[in-house]
Amino acid sequence: MDAALTPGLPWRVARVVDSTPETATARSIHLAVPGWRGHLAGQHIDLKLTAEDGYTAQRSYSLSRPADGEHIELTVQRIDDGEVSPYLTEMEPGEQIELRGPIGGWFVWRPAEEARVMLVAGGSGIVPLMAMLRQRLLRGSSQFRLVYSVRTPADVYYAHELSRLERDCDWLRIDLVYTRAAPPQTPRITGRIRLDDLEVADWTPGRDLRVYICGPTGFVESVAAKLIEYGHSPSAIRTERFGPSG
Fold first, then answer.
1. pTM over 0.85, yes/no
2. What pLDDT sits at residue 94?
3. Would you say residue 54 has pLDDT above 70?
4. What stretch(es) of the chain map to CATH 2.40.30.10?
5. What was the pLDDT predicted at 244?
6. Do the bridges between strand 116-122 and strand 96-103 make them parallel or antiparallel, or are there none, so unpaired?
7. d(CA 129, CA 81)
8. Bridge partners for 158 per DSSP
């Protein structure tokens, strides 16, 4: 069994190293975690906040970078009426927080795998998929395609990095799908992902293709249904979904 999948995970105290903006409402938070044993691209952590009166709130967050010693990174979208995200996005370097992980063994990508990989993200669902792209940049030989659905250009996480990866990496194709507003000269009409956004030459269903979908529950279910309609085997599709807490 991978060390990163070992059960019985302890709570650890993590320290904020730095925090950088990704969009107007999201930040990437770099944490140092003493004793961290590594993780796989696609895994997540549980994070716990404890108030002075003893009240605790716990949430799960995907890891946005591959293993890097005792350092991890989360990208957190601020939800104004949320219990946890407003606090996380205001944390300063040196502040501490409790977490445990890594968690999950199904929604992961390993560099030794040779199958082509299609990533489909809705909004902040890009986070664990970005860890896979970053892992592929370090190691691996698979061809990747990313279909990323966002409301507007301002909502694209990791925008500069994705642009650089697409320019410099011959193993990667990126298709951005805008649902509310698109940049000038964008040929596609704005709107939710359609079947023709997923139907691309050289990315047809086959035994050598694996699909990872991450986003809100409705988005994931809709995309998975379209891919199955197109001919993809359900066994080739792996999903990770999220929704409102509480």
1. yes
2. 98
3. yes
4. 3-103
5. 52
6. unpaired
7. 26
8. none
Residue 205, phi then psi, degrees to nearest 5:
-60, 145
- Map tokens 């906040």 to a residue: 49
Q: What is the DSSP string of 168-237?
A: H-TTEEEEEEESS---TT--SPSSS--HHHH--TT----TTEEEEEEEEHHHHHHHHHHHHHHT--GGGE
Query: What are the residue ranges of CATH 3.40.50.80 in the chain?
Result: 116-242
The verdict on domain 3-103 having CATH code 2.40.30.10 is yes
CATH, domain range 116-242: 3.40.50.80
How far apart CA 152 and CA 156 sit, in angstroms, is: 7
- 204-224 pLDDT, tens per residue? 888 899 999 999 999 999 999
Measured distance between the N- and C-terminal CA atoms of the chain, rounded to whole angstroms: 33
SS3 30: strand
Share of the chain above pLDDT 70, in %: 96
Which residue has tokens 């925008």?
A: 159
Task: Check: CB of residue 47 under 8 Å from CB of residue 127.
Answer: no
Instruction: Residue count of the chain, please give it.
Output: 246
Distances (CA, A) of 226 to 37, 143, 194, 221: 38, 22, 8, 9
CA 189 to chain centre: 25
Task: Specify the amino acid at residue 29.
Answer: I
Closest CA to 240 of 135, 79, 128: 128
